[in-house]
Structures are given as C-alpha cells and as structure tokens.
Design brief:
This protein has 222 residues and is an alpha/beta fold. The protein has one domain: Rossmann fold (3-Layer(aba) Sandwich), CATH 3.40.50. 58% of the residues lie in helices and 11% in strands. It contains 8 helices and 5 strands; from the N terminus they run βαβααβααβααβα. The N and C termini lie close together (9 Å).
Length: 222
C-alpha cells in the first residue's frame, strides 16, 4: 500500500490554524477521503496530559530544555500511536503543529537555537518530516489578541487554563515569528507561506490549492 501524505499547519497562537485545519479536513472528506486529524501537544491520552502541564499558567519555572523535552515526548507518542499507523495505511494526516513549532517556540522564543531542536528531532522522530507545511502568518498583534480572547473564553467555559505561552512578552513572540520565517526560507519546497491581509475564505483557497497539487503528485506516483 502506498504511504500516505503528512500535512502540518503552523503559525502563532491565534493565527487561525484550528479553523483552517477543520475546513481542510472537510474539503478532503468531500473528495471521498478520510483524513486523520491530530494536534501537538495533545492528540493522545498521554499527550493531553503533557499538554495540560505545558500550557497551564500554573506551570511556572519550567526550564526551556525541560519544556522542549516534554514537547518531544508528546510528539513521540503521537507519531507511534497516530501518525505512523495512519501513514502506513495510506491516509492523509493533518497535524496542528509539529517540530517546526518547537524550533520556533523553543529554538527561537526560548533561544535554545535550531541545532538543539533539530538534533532532538533526529533522535525522536527519525526521518519523519511533513510532506507539506502550511504556515499562517497574520500580524503578531492580531494573533496574540485572538489567542488571548480564545483562551479566556475557554477558561470561563471549561475551567481549563492554557494561557502560559500567551503570558510571554512581545519580544518572545517576535523571536518565534522570525524563526518561522527562517524555516520557511530554509525549506521552500516543503513550507508554503500564506501571507497578506487575507480573509478566512481566501486563506482556505490558498491552502486547498497547495494540497490539491500534492495530492495530484501523490496519485501520479502510485
């Protein structure tokens, strides 16, 4: 059976990834395909517990290297439990964040550098890389404002607190965004940068155009 297609969505919190991954999954389903949708951190029972620890505002004093190690522990579980089995079955996997997020947030934001993150990726993830990464880059200010409003709403409704990263200062997020830019410049064949002051529908159109091209290439190689 041909191997499936691994697609990731990346960007700052509040960039619209959750909305776009849902719309992309629906678009794929209308083509009689059943995508596997997951997220990081989270997506598995173990990962959800790690996510709670990583994102909870009460997790103060977490060392940057410990934070990175927890991200990769979550990723290892998701790869073993969800991503690799689905790809082996020839499915399309849609993942909200992958190692690019760790390189941006821990490598850039926490200033650990790309080398440490990529070495950890090699040890934990082996040769697994997304076939396509869609990077959503709305303005820094707009992303943070949306993320903070969303998390406040979720906290009020469910009692879950996922505000730890949103409490970071603007300089942290500027380093994250710059690192995302560096990744996109380094790997232009894999990372599609969707830029401009675009509406939700316009972003979706660009995403499906990029995905349709990869699906066509996958079909031709079968």
């Amino acid at each position: 059976m041909p191997r499936g297609l691994f697609i990731t969505l990346e960007g700052l919190d509040g960039s619209g990834k959750t909305t776009q991954i849902k719309r992309l999954a629906a678009w794929i389903q209308r083509r009689n395909l059943q995508p596997t949708v997951t997220r990081q951190p989270g997506g598995t029972a173990t990962g959800d517990r790690i996510r709670e620890l990583l994102l909870d505002s009460r997790s103060t004093g977490l060392a940057p290297l410990a934070e990175m190690a927890l991200m990769f522990a979550d990723r290892a579980q998701c790869i073993a439990e969800i991503i690799e089995p689905a790809l082996a079955e020839g499915k399309i996997v849609l993942c909200d964040r992958f190692t690019d997020s760790t390189e941006a947030y821990q490598g850039g934001g926490r200033e650990l550098g790309s080398e440490a993150v990529l070495e950890m990726h090699r040890l934990v993830c082996g040769r697994l890389q997304p076939d396509l990464t869609l990077l959503l880059p709305p303005s820094l200010e707009a992303s943070l404002e949306r993320a903070r409003r969303r998390n406040e709403r979720v906290t009020a409704q469910t009692g879950q607190d996922e505000n730890r990263f949103e409490a970071e200062k603007e300089a942290f997020y500027r380093r994250v965004w710059q690192k995302y830019r560096e990744i996109a410049a380094r790997e232009p064949e894999r990372v599609i940068l969707i830029e401009g002051n675009l509406g939700i529908d316009e972003v979706h159109e660009q995403i499906v155009e990029a995905v349709a091209e990869r699906l066509l290439a996958l079909a031709e190689n079968k």
